[in-house]
Structure formats: C-alpha cells, structure tokens
Amino acid sequence: MERLRALVALATYNEIENLPGLVDAIHQSLPDADILVIDDNSPDGTGCWCDERSASNSRFHCLHRPGKQGLGSATLAGVRWALDRKYDLFVTMDADWSHDPQHLPELVRATEAADVAIGSRYCNGGAIEGWPLTRRLMSRVMNTLSRFVLRLPVRDSSGAFRAYRANVLRSIDLTKVQAAGYSYLEEILWHLRRAGATFAEVPITFHERRAGQSKINVREAWSKITTLARLAAKR
To answer: What is the rounded CA–CA span in Å between residue 90 and residue 47?
Structure first.
C-alpha cells in the first residue's frame, strides 16, 4: 500500500484516566500517524493534559471546543480539521480503551480495498467483552434496523472504530449530516453509501471502558431512532 498520511481522532469529555496510556499505545501501533484530540472543555483536566502533550510532541494535536456538543459534532470538526490539512486517512476510535489500538494497522490496511473500513463487533471473528445481555440485545436490534431500513451494507453501523479515505469524505456535503450525537455514526455511513463509497469490516473485540462513565443514555438511544426514521423517509 502507498504511504498515506493518517490522522487518528479521539473525541473526549472527561477521559484523563484513559487518554495518556491510550495515546502512547496508538503511537506504538501506528508510529507514522498523527493524533488529534477534540476536547469539549473537559472539567477533569483532559484539555490541559493535551496542551502539555502537544507542546512536546509534534505528532499530537488538540482541538478545544467550548463545551459538550456531542460525539458527532466533535467528529465532524475533526474531519474538517483533517481535510484542511490534507491527510489521506481519517481514523476514529473511542477514547476509553473499548477499541484496542492493536487493531489499527489491520484497519488501515483494509482501506487498500475499500473507502471505509469498520472495526466490527458483528462480522465473523468479532466479539464483545463486558456487556450485559440487555445491552447486547439492544445493540443487535439497532444494527439490524440500520442494515435493513437504511440499506447499509455492513453488520456494525453503530461502532466508532473506523478508517475513512479522505477523498470519499470530500465527496459528501458534511453540512447535511444533522446528527450531533452518536447517531451520526449511522448517518454518515448513509451519506457515504449514497455517494458510492465502498465498505469493509475488520473483526475486533470490543471491551467495556476501563475508567470513567459511559456517555450513552436514553436521550442518545432516542436520537438514534429518530435519525433512522428521518433517513428512511428520505430513502
């Protein structure tokens, strides 16, 4: 594969317990990649740590935002930052260790044959550790709905462990991605599919977060349902 400039983006809010070790692990797995943290003014000092790290590491960057605005909003800000700086690959992952950095090289390699590579819990070889049965069932139901209602050609459309080729991100109008929270994960795939993007899934093992509190709540679940309904109506 040709040498591509890759940016790994991490959206953060109160991840100071997880972020320092995770950043080191990402650099070990992808030594040539840059890292961008999009921090929504975390009160736990995440943003301050990022400033200190960026001062001593030219491959580490931080985009500060004034407050908590949602995962989708943060990720789209990261996309624009990456496209403005001419990166070839834009990689996203959770900042809580639920996504193992050891999967990063395989995820990046998968973009040789696809515009978007997804770290998948639900393709052959994928797995989940640490989730109760109810959460597993809810996730399965939402992904099944996304696959059939939105005609998304992937089994895991709600996971944030992804690698996008920058040229396919440039092919869509990012202002049309309306979801600001977790439901952007399905919506951006929907826009990319309509633009003719190709997809690949790489099996991963998803782990429960190591420290801190989950950002998933009832409001986010309802947002996913309304997003699916909105996109299905446009189909």
So the answer is: 21
Q: Which two tokens stand for residue 25?
A: 């692990």
Residues 6+ apart with CB under 8 A from 151: 193, 235
* DSSP 8-state class, residue 172: S
pLDDT single digits (tens) 44-95: 999 999 999 999 999 999 999 999 999 999 999 999 999 999 999 999 999 9
> Which H or E run contains 195?
none
Residue 86: how many CB atoms within 10 A of its CB? 8
Structure tokens, 42? 């975390």
- Decide: helix, strand or coil at residue 129: strand
What DSSP line would sit under 201-235, residue for residue?
EEE-EEE--SSS-----HHHHHHHHHHHHHHHHH-
pLDDT digits (tens, 9 = 90+) for 15-32: 999 999 999 999 999 999
- Asked whether 46 and 39 are in contact (CB, 8 A), the reply is yes
6-234: in CATH 2.40.50.140 = no
Q: Which residues pair with 61 in a beta bridge?
A: 36
For residues 124 and 119, what is the distance between their CA atoms, to the nearest angstrom? 11
- The tokens describing 3, both together, are 């040498």
Q: Return the beta strands (E) in 166-232 as ranges.
A: 199-203, 205-207
Q: Phi-psi category of 100—alpha, beta or left, where left has phi over 0 and alpha has psi -120 to 50?
A: beta
